[in-house]
Amino acid sequence: MAGLSIAGLGVAAGGWILALAASSSAPAAPQIFTKSQVKAGQQVFLAHCAVCHGYQLQGKIGPALKGPAFADVWLTGKQNADSLFYVISTQMPFNAPGSLKTSQYLEALSYILSQNGLVPGKTAMTVALLKKTTLPKAP
Amino acid sequence: MKAYPLSLRLAAAAVLSLAVSSLGLAAGPTQHQLDAARQNGSNWLMYNRTYSGDRFSPLTQINTTDASQLTPVCANQLGTLAAFQATPVEYRGVLYVTTQHQTVAMNAATCKTLWDYTYVPTGPEPINTNRGVALYKGMVIRGTDDAHLIALNAGTGKLIWNVKVGNSAIGEFLSAAPIVWKNLIFIGLAGADWGIKGQVYAYNVKNGKRVWTFNDIPTGNAVGASTWGRAASTATGGGSTWSTITLDRSNGLVYVPIGNPAPDFAPEYRPGANLFTDSVVELNAKTGKLVRWHQQVPNDSHDWDTAAAPILFTTSNGHHYMAVADKAGYLFVYNQATHKLAYKVPTTTIHNASLHPTVKGVYTCPADLGGTEWSSPAYDPQTAALYVNSVDWCGVDKLGEVRYVAGQLFFGGSSILDPVAKASGWLDAFDASSGQTLWRWHSPTPMLAGVTPTAGGVLMTGDLNGNFLVFDARTGQKLYQFDTGGAMAGGVITYKVNGRQYVAVASGNSSRSIWGTTGSGTIFVFALPY
Mean of the pLDDT values across residues B132-145? Predict the structure, then answer.
C-alpha cells in the first residue's frame, strides 16, 4: 500500500466505531482457538513476551496480561478481538514490533486468552475470525 | 474534581504544629525565596533550579582543582525496579524525590528517610514515570500516572488535597514536574502517543481548583486550528508536556514544551503543521492566554517531541535568548527581542530527516528515542556556553494501519530501533551566542541525565552505564567518574548543607521502554572529603 489514502483511514476509524456499537449484545463466550495454538503460544510467549510481561503474565515492565487489570481493559464484553490482535501484532514485542509471524501472534494471543479463562475448542484462531469476534466478559 | 476539606484542615493544623523543627520546614519556600533561587546556591528549589531553568549553580566548593577527590557520602535505595527519571529538589537540608508511586523526603546530607508517602492510584497508569515535585509554602506538589494532582505536607508527607486532572483510561497522565508561581501550579498532560488531546493547566495551590486550561490541539476558531487540514484528526491529535515548565518572571509568561502529534508515524492522517505539537508555547501565566509560539517540527512523522523544557538566558552583552533542544536532534536558540530563530545546530546524527515513514520503512536518525529527551540544556555564564545531552540512536520508521483503540498506543506505524548496542550519546558544549561547537564528548551510552554547570567550573552529569561524571566545563576534560551501579537518567543537582557542598544524583533507571538499562531506584549523594 503506497501512501495511505485519507478515505482508507476514514474507513478504518469508522469501522472501529461500528464494531463497538455492534458488540453491545455479546453472545456466550465463543471458542476461538485450539489447544495446539495454546501450546505453541506458550512457547512464543516465553521466548518473546515473558521478559517484559512476566513468566506468569503477572506484569513487569509491561502490564499484566491476566487478572483484573487485563480484564478491565479487554474482557469487558465490548472489545473487539481484532483490536487486541492489532495491538499485539503491530506494537509487540515492544522492542521489535511486527517482528513475529502472523501465526505466532495468533498463537500468543490464544495463550493469553487461555490464561484468562477462555477455553480452547475446535475452531482455530485466524485473522478473519478475530475480525468478527467480540471478546467476552471475564469469566 | 474532588476536594478534601477535612484533610485540608488537618494538614493546616499539622503545618502550624510543626513550624519549629530543625529540618526543612514548614512555611517555605516562600514566593520570595523562589524568586531569589538564582542567587541562592544553597538550595535547589525546582526541577531546573530556577524559573528560567538555566540550571547553573553559583556554588564553588567543588571545582576543577578538587573534583577528582569527590566521594559518595550516602545512598538511599527507594525500593523500586522501574523507570527512575526523577530530579530531586532540595530545600533547607531536605531532598524530595519521586518514583511512580512514592514521594520521599530525606536528609540531604545523610540520605536518611524522613517520610515516605505512597500514592495508591485509582485508575490505570499508562506509564511508570514521574519527574518530580514542586515545593511551595510547606507543600510538596506532584502529578500521578493516573492523572491526579496531589499536594502533601512537606513536613509530614500527609496528603493535603488530591484532584483528578484527566482520564488515564484513555492515556492521559501527569508525569511532568510542576512549578508554582504566585499561588498557581503549572503542569501539562502527557499521553500523545495514546492519542490524547493534550492540555496545559494552572491550578490554585491552596485548594487544587483549576484556574485555566490551554488546549495543545486547537479546534474551531482557535489560533492554529487551520494547521489541521483534516479537522477530524484533532480528536486524537496528541501533544504532551513531559518534563517541566519554564517561567519568565519579568513578563509573566510560562514557556511550555509540547510534544509530538498522533498518530506518531502517519502524518498523512493529519495534514498540516499540526500546531501546537513539537512547539514551545508562551502563555500568560495568569490567564493561560496564548501569546506566541515557536514550532520546532511541523507535521512530525517520527515522534520527535519537544520534550525537555526550554531555558531562558541572557548573555554578557545583554542579549536575551530562549533555547530548546528536541528529539529531532537539534538545539534551537531564539532571540527574545525579535522572536526570530538565532540559530539551530544538530546535537546528534541526522539522516533521512525530511522523509516520512513508508510502509516498507525508512532508516531514520534520530529514531523515536533519539535527540534530547527530557533533560534540558544548561547555560553557564562563566563559559558563555550551552551544554546539551543527547541520544544518538537510529532505526527504521514504518507507516502502518491507523487504528484508534482507546487506552492503547496510537502509533499508526512503528519504529524498529537499531540494537541498543549501537546506540550512543553526546554531551555538547556550544558557544551560546553563535552555536559554534566548543567541545563535545561522545558517550558509549545515550545521555539522558540532567546536566549541571557550576561556578566551580565543573559540569556534572551521568550516563546509562551508571557513571556519575564530572567534566571541566571549559575544556570537556573528564575530572571524576564514579560507577553508581544503575543507569543514570534523572536529576543531577547540587546544594549546600552546613557549609558543605553536596551533589545528589538519581541512579537506577530500569526503564520500561528499551533503553536496556538496569539498577534499582537510588539517590546517591557526593561531596568532598572533610
Answer: 98
Q: Is B402 on the interface with A (CB under 8 A)?
A: yes
User: Which residues contact residue B7 at a Cβ distance below 8 angstroms, ignoring those fewer than 6 apart?
Assistant: B158, B159, B160, B161
pTM of the full structure: 0.89
Q: What is the pLDDT of residue B50?
A: 98
* Residue B467 Cα, gap to closest chain A Cα (Å): 23
Distance CA(B21)–CA(B154), nearest Å, equals 12
- Read off φ and ψ for residue A57, nearest 5 degrees: 60, 20
Interface of A with B in 84-103 (CB under 8 A): 86-87, 90-91, 94-99
The number of angstroms, rounded, from the C-alpha of B89 to the middle of its chain's C-alpha atoms is 13
Q: Please check whether residue B358 touches A, CB under 8 A.
A: yes
- For residues A8 and A62, membership in a common domain is answered with no
**Is residue A84 domain-shared with residue A72, that is, in the same domain?**
yes
Q: Does A7 touch chain B (CB under 8 A)?
A: no
Mean pLDDT of B296-308: 98
Phi, psi of B334 (to 5 degrees): -110, 140
pLDDT class for B519, splitting at 50, 70, 90?
Answer: confident
Is B512 touching A (CB cutoff 8 A)?
Answer: yes
Query: ipTM for the complex?
Result: 0.75
Dihedral of alpha carbons B245, B248, B254, B255, sign: negative
Say whether both A35 and A102 belong to one domain. yes
Structure confidence by residue, pLDDT tens digits, A10-69? 333 333 232 333 334 444 568 999 999 999 999 999 999 999 999 999 998 889 999 998
Q: Is A137 inside any structural domain?
A: no
- Domain of residue A51, residue span: 31-131
Render pLDDT for B29-63 as a digit per residue (tens, 0 to 9).
999 999 999 999 999 999 999 999 999 999 999 99
Residue whose C-alpha cell is 544553597: B42
B268 touches A at CB < 8 Å: yes
Nearest CB among A4, A86, A95 relative to B399 is that of A4
| A64-99 confidence digits (pLDDT tens) | 999 998 999 999 999 999 999 999 999 999 888 999
A11 touches chain B (CB under 8 A): no
Superfamily holding B27-527: Quinoprotein alcohol dehydrogenase-like superfamily (2.140.10.10)
What's the count of helices (H) and strands (E) in chain B, helices before strands?
2, 35
Top residue of A90, A99, A130 to mutate, by most chain B CBs within 10 Å, is A90
User: How many domains is chain A partitioned into structurally?
Assistant: 2
Show me where the domains of chain B are located: 27-527
